[in-house]
Amino acid sequence: MSAFEMFGFGVDGWGGVMLLGASMTVALTLAALAIGAVFGALVACAKLSRFRVAGFLGECYTTVFRGVPELLVIYLFYFGGSGFVSAVAHWFGSDGFVSVPPFAVGAFAVGMISGSYQAEVYRAAVLAVAPGELEAACAIGMSRATMLRRILIPQVLRFALPGIGNVWQMSLKDSALISVTGLAELMRESQVGAGSTHDYFQFFIAGGVLYLVITGVSNRIFGRAEAVVGRSFKRNFARN
């Protein structure tokens, strides 16, 4: 079978399966990035807080999830989560093993890892804002909500976007590890196709090409977003 037939969209072709796997990878990475944004923002606030306990807890979070291998984190969440859910189900009279949804566990695990990196991105972006601007806003009596909306958040977004783009690429690669849970994402579909046809080289090359396509498109999107935010910031600066 030729490569065109193998990766076609006919009855025996694997093209549709590979594209579905790629779409699952993108969906998983988007969910993980959103979860990581929530945890990252909270941890960044904790590390910037004047309270030592909050700072210590934030430091523990980033140390653990940046120091422990990603695959181990996924195993802990998947098998540990299934064990916890099964234990809770046994308390209510249920028997047997209760598995957790691979997509939810994968998105949460990768999201927690992503959050540890996003926290540092947000913290650095906040520290990059000139203190004089915030002091001037306080001096003219600007409310905290207005200060956040007009000064802090736009600049944090501008400074954080390049770092968030890097975190996205990292999470995209980490999503390949979710294949160990059986989720039908791109890496898993590449493995299944290679095992079914015994044509490992072509399937893993095809999987790599799709990863590069996703990476290239996402780089263009983040680059465009950075340009738009930069122009918007310059216009607002000129008006002021």
From TrEMBL:
Which positions, given as ranges, span the membrane? 20-44, 72-92, 200-222
The protein, known as: ABC transporter permease subunit
Q: Which CDD domains match?
A: TM_PBP2 (cd06261)
* Keywords annotated in UniProt: Cell inner membrane, Cell membrane, Membrane, Transmembrane, Transmembrane helix, Transport
Q: Which family does it belong to?
A: Belongs to the binding-protein-dependent transport system permease family. HisMQ subfamily.
Gene3D superfamilies membership: MetI-like
Q: How does it sit in the membrane?
A: Multi-pass membrane protein
ABC transmembrane type-1 domain boundaries: 22-222
Q: Supply one GO CC term from the record.
A: ATP-binding cassette (ABC) transporter complex
**What InterPro entries does the database record attribute to this sequence?**
AA_ABC_transptr_permease_3TM, ABC_transp_permease_HisMQ, MetI-like, MetI-like_sf
Localization terms from the record = Cell inner membrane; Cell membrane
An example of a GO molecular function for this protein is: transmembrane transporter activity
Q: What is its main location?
A: membrane
Stored Pfam families: BPD_transp_1
